[in-house]
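Hi team,

Filling in the usual template for the complex we talked about on Friday. All components are listed, including any nucleic acid strands or ligand strings, so the model treats them as one assembly.

SUBMITTER: L.P.
PURPOSE: interface mapping
COMPONENTS: two
RESIDUES: 578
SEQUENCES:
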Amino acid sequence: MRVLAIESSAVTASVAIVTDEVLTAEYTMNYKKTHSQTLLPMIDEICKMTDVDVNSIDTIAVSVGPGSFTGLRIGVATGKGIALATGAKMVEVPTLEAMAYNFYGTGTKQIICSIMDARRSHLYMGMYQFGKDGQLETLHDSDQLSFEEVCEICNKQTAPIVFTGDGIDAAKDYLSEHLSVEYTYAPAHLRTQRAGSVAMAGIVRADKGEYTDAARVKPDYLRPSQAERERAEQHG
Amino acid sequence: MAKEDVLILAIESSCDETAAAVVKNGREVLSNVINTQIDIHTLYGGVVPEIASRKHIENINPVIEKALTDANVTLDDITAIGVTYGPGLVGALLVGVAEAKAIAFATKKPLVGVHHIEGHISANYVENPTLEPPFAALVVSGGHTHLVMVNDYGKYEIIGRTRDDAAGEAFDKVARAVGLGYPGGPKVDKLAKEGNPHAIKFPQAHVDDSPYDFSFSGIKSAVLNYINECEMKKIEINKANLVASFQNAVVEALVSRAMRLVDERKIKKLAIAGGVASNSALRAAMQEACAERNVEFYSPSPKLCTDNAVMIGSAAYYDYCNGVRHGYDLNAVPNLKLGERI
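RESULT (copied from the run log):
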């Protein structure tokens, strides 16, 4: 099995190739260039460097959100285009779940709370824990919550929590003031979106047969567009 | 398929149509698939960029697959991938650009980025096998109003452009003001047929320092003022006369500038393009003005006037033949200038 993983939900652009049990290549960049300019050249580069023929990729795992609407669409369209051309299967990976996979295989029993900045004192949040079998369990599915709601959910947990994601920068002050449970913040290298983790989450999902037809793969924005929100408010 | 044939798979997503087509040698349409989102945007009275982008990503693969199936070809038969990379809505453009680049990468085929307006102009090549540059072109749509000299394939010289609203934008705004709804162009065209185009005199806006530039915000404001005045004086508006007179003012502005160019440069061929090129009054007036001067007049059929990928496939073919190639770092350029290559 050879997996190409794509992650472009936020500032980080990251691509990876996992061949069977080997992380063949991973290329992650935090730079001012847009994903439109970086993502495909990065995929081209890792394929060339590792002599991977794109036709040998059988599965494409894409981080589908939440995150930047435009960033998500660039990653998803890139995956869909390759799948259309090569016939590779696709797996949709929730971005927050992929971030929890940064801790996959570490044996941690902590609760992993992935948070991304959703602006206006809100976070995109997902809560996970690796069970006795080492497999990921979802305690709270990807959601858009206020700082207050995140603290409420966290304060009900009995195991220590480790926070990961750029939501830490956005909510740090609020969290430290309102959390009454044991918690830590993940170190820098475990805190960012990484395509290697998208690949691992994708492999687990693929093993369960959780593929999505490439034609139907789309971002999971967790948030309607502003025009739709305003229209819904006007029309009750 | 002859070996020297060039087949372009073209993709267009600059506004609210997700479109793909296969075009042979720049002129022959093998398929033309368009998924329009018009019903969704009608709810909002105009195109909502974020909604357009969301629809593009949902529709793009089926649209491309249908274009290949309808043409009875596979990606193996395709010579190059053409895609609109500007001008347009950035989020919408990016879906087509990312998809096209990924297909080009995975198939190892050349990638050709296309200017949307150059596409509109090229729609004329598709239905007029004998049309060759040089010729004058008037591009009128909801987002663009350009008077252009096409000096050669892929060589454009901008002669005039709008300083404010695009002609189609003025149609949309006037249609909204008189309660016709969105999209305004076809509705104004239809109602104008029942009205007197000389009933109300709207001002012809001239741009001081350029005889070829357009301005439509003045005409639009005059229409809105007229409506307000009538409402204040409690005079019932004859909507058909109003839109016919408005349309006449816009058509006169377009025809007079195009004819000035034709006369000054002694041009023998004129083509129109873009969504507003399907307006029946504009077509008739252009046809007549060209006939008076013994100038050949070209216009695409209405289905190739509005956004489509066939026109992108035609433009991409001539760019491909001229050696234009884009890299995998091709970005959407929302304000791309005509004739510019990034």
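MY TAKE: DSSP finds eleven helices and ten strands in chain B. The interface with chain A takes residues 43-44, 48, 50-51, 53-54, 56-58, 60-62, 64-65, 75, 90-91, 94-103, 105-107, 327-332 of chain B (CB under 8 Å).

Thanks, L.
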